[in-house]
Amino acid sequence: MIFFLIIWSLSNLGFFALASSMSKHQKQIYLTELDASKTRFARCIGWLILLITLGICISQGQMSNMISYWVGVLTFSALFVGLILSYFPEKIKKLMQMCLLLSIISGLLYLL
After folding, report:
1. Domain range for residue 24?
2. Which of 40, 49, 62, 106 is found 20 to 30 A from 70 (Cα to Cα)?
């Protein structure tokens, strides 16, 4: 369960970063559009976080099983982020902070 929380919370952060690179969602999150360099940075960070979650998954078991696991967790993360962006756009920043805290806590618990 803790491994799921690590991958899920990091995937949420990656998807929130990718959403921050889209002009429509920038207006929802920041109430204005970001400039091109910040948009590019958000896109790169989003993809980097998702690749990190893939690397974590692959390193914890058999590659074929863990890629399937990763895709399943991505599905839940995408659903969560989509629901938040649709119904609670004013709470996105707080939820991003909670996901970051959850990933840190679950990562530490996993290492112990």
Report:
1. 2-111
2. 40
What is the domain count for the chain?
1
What's the CA gap between 17 and 33, in Å, rounded? 14
- CA–CA separation, 20 and 106 (whole Å): 25
Instruction: Give me the tens of pLDDT residue by residue for the chain, a chain 112 residues long.
Output: 899 999 999 999 999 999 989 888 878 887 788 889 988 999 999 999 999 999 999 999 899 999 999 999 999 999 999 999 999 988 888 999 999 999 999 999 998 8
Give the span between the Cα atoms of 109 and 34, in whole angstroms.
36
